[in-house]
Amino acid sequence: MSDKQKSDVSKPNLGKIPEPPNPSEEPRTTFSAVGVPTGTPPSDKRTSESLRDEPGRSEVSPKSSLEDIVSLAKRRGFVYQGSDIYGGMAGIYDFGPYGAELLNNIKKAWWKANVYRKDNYVGLDSAMFKHPKVWDASGHTSGFSDPLAECKKCNTRIRVDKELEKIGIAADEKMSEAELNKLFDENRDKIKCAKCGEQDFSAVRAFNLLVKSNLGDFTGKDEEPVYLPGEASQGIYLNYKNVLNSARVKIPFGIAQINKAFRNEISPRNFLFRTREFEQADTELFVKPNENKEAYEQIKQDRWSWYLDIGIKEENLRWKQHENLVFYASDAWDIEYNFPSLGFDEIEGIHDRTDYDLTQHMKFSGTDLSYVDAQTKEKYIPWILETSMGLGRVFMAVLSDAYQIETMESGDQRTVLKFKPELAPVRYAVFPLLKNKPELVAKAREVYEKLSEKYVCEFDDNGNIGKRYRRQDEIGTPYCVTIDFDTLDDDSVTLRDRDTTDQKRVEIGRLVRDDLL
Ligand code: ATP
Fold it and tell me: Quick check: 228 and 351 in contact, CB under 8 A?
């Protein structure tokens, strides 16, 4: 571990999840907790009728803050600070039991839309480590940097382009060091250190974001370091020829993959928004030169529709076109999401990259990456249309979009995550009405076993039904299934809908066959 990394570990943690203001007083239920009846049994023999007393919903609270989302994410096991017991690491997060499910469901929805539903796209899973020359060819070793300045009093580092943007000055990381220093000097009096309030910063210097490893280096000299991937897409370019030769594809065809990326971000912040380790879901469409425009528009439309399909509200999305294009790019747009407390910011980039990537790899590797059209015998370097989505940012968008505080008719409040059922970490929660009635518990276990063949389910026999509903609302479970004494007679259960809180009687067979709604 380098000195820099050491100092980051012990530094106050910029991205640390604050302790929730109001930790849940409810005992946690595990995914597969087996109900053992304990506690004082109520004397009456209750049936489905008594489940219908859940107070209805009424008002919805105004938009939540990022702190609310972060607090819920930690309290309910969606996201934890990385290496929490050692004080955490800036910009590193772990996904907990519900977070891992939600993340997987987002990935599945993306893979389905981009691989299974497109007959000219194939999937890929490339290794993270790549030949060191890959990052020379891609321009990352020379140009993948952010502009950094350091507070001379407390050594806090700032990302200068982002600080300039905050005060309304158009700046970005692609500008030269000289350009950024000029802009920074003109505006130093408007930028304060967030930690100590001083305005005494060093000059701006470009800081390379690639993270090094010592893979295969037994000399300790670090002469040709193997980098961790700065972006996931390079694995696709490297395998373009392999896929072409093995997967019976022809232009235009696409390759999709989900893979990790690592960046030595100067100031990781805003929860999952800017982290040092994250996942990207990328697609690259290989097209004939100059046949890019129509395909690019189609890709933009498809990506916009995907966000609506996974349940993101359209009013929380917008397009932003890049003003400063890199020299090889023909067009570039971002899809932005309106994050609570942060406002609109990028979740995905859609780039028309011409033939730059394959030409560079051809030059650096000496391998011919041109394409020969089997019919016309035309030979060319394909152009590339790329989509690159950050999974952490989309996870945060999905969580924020689903989060609601509702005031019930009783005056009580409920926190509810209104995920699309396909994304919800748990599809069905199964409750025996009373945990001290072995016949109800056994029947509930039987229903749980059947449903969990198809779906992620949770078994909960702890506390009254209202409290169990609240726990499931907080993790976004769309359906709660209660087994009562009527179930033993007629094989029907009470099915409660998360969003409406309506309850209806349904046969168990209909749940299992999935012909519910
Ligand atoms: P930014 O300008 O915010 O640094 P970028 O333009 O460098 O982002 P890309 O290199 O285009 O981002 O990466 C594609 C996607 O990867 C982004 O749209 C974003 O969702 C995600 N991403 C990039 N950097 C990070 C990061 N540090 N933490 C989490 N996600 C990230």
Answer: no
Beta strand 428-432 pairing with 479-483: parallel
- In total, the chain counts a number of residues equal to 517
Ligand 1 centre from 390 Cα, in Å?
6
Q: pLDDT band at residue 175, thresholds of 50, 70 and 90?
A: confident
pLDDT mean over 336-346: 96
Mean pLDDT within 1-16 = 33
Whether 197 has a pLDDT exceeding 70, the answer reads: yes
Highest mean pLDDT among 7-16, 55-64, 458-467: 458-467
Q: Which residues are 274's β-sheet partners? A: 269
**Residue 3: which pLDDT band, with cuts at 50, 70 and 90?**
very low
Q: 346, 347, 357, 391: which to mutate for ligand 1, most atoms within 8 A of CB?
A: 346
User: 219 C-alpha to center of ligand 1: Å?
Assistant: 34
CB 35 within 8 A of CB 459: yes
pLDDT single digits (tens) 121-155: 999 999 999 999 999 999 999 888 899 999 999 99
- pLDDT for position 302: 98
Contact 361, 351 (CB under 8 A): no
Nearest to 186 by CA among 170, 197, 206: 170
**d(C-alpha 454, C-alpha 397), whole Å:** 27
Amino acid at the residue 281: A
> Predicted confidence band at 261 (pLDDT cuts at 50, 70, 90)?
very high
Average per-residue pLDDT in the chain? 87
Residue nearest to atom 2 of ligand 1 (CA): 346
Of the candidates 215, 216, 219, the one whose C-alpha atom is nearest the C-alpha of residue 229 is 215
List residues bridging with 321 in a β-sheet: 333
Strands lying side by side in the sheet with 492-497? 457-459, 428-432, 479-483, 492-497, 503-507
Task: State yes or no: pLDDT of 24 exceeds 60.
Answer: no
Residue 20 is which amino acid?
A: P
List the structure tokens of 327.
């020299």
- Residue whose CA lies nearest to ligand 1 atom number 27: 274
DSSP 175: S
Q: Specify the amino acid at residue 43.
A: S
The DSSP result for 55-110, as a single string, is PPEEEEPSPPPHHHHHHHHHHTTSEEETTGGGT--TT-EEE-HHHHHHHHHHHHHH
Bin 295: left if φ > 0, else alpha if -120 < ψ < 50, else beta. Answer: alpha
CA separation for the pair 209, 230 (Å, rounded): 7
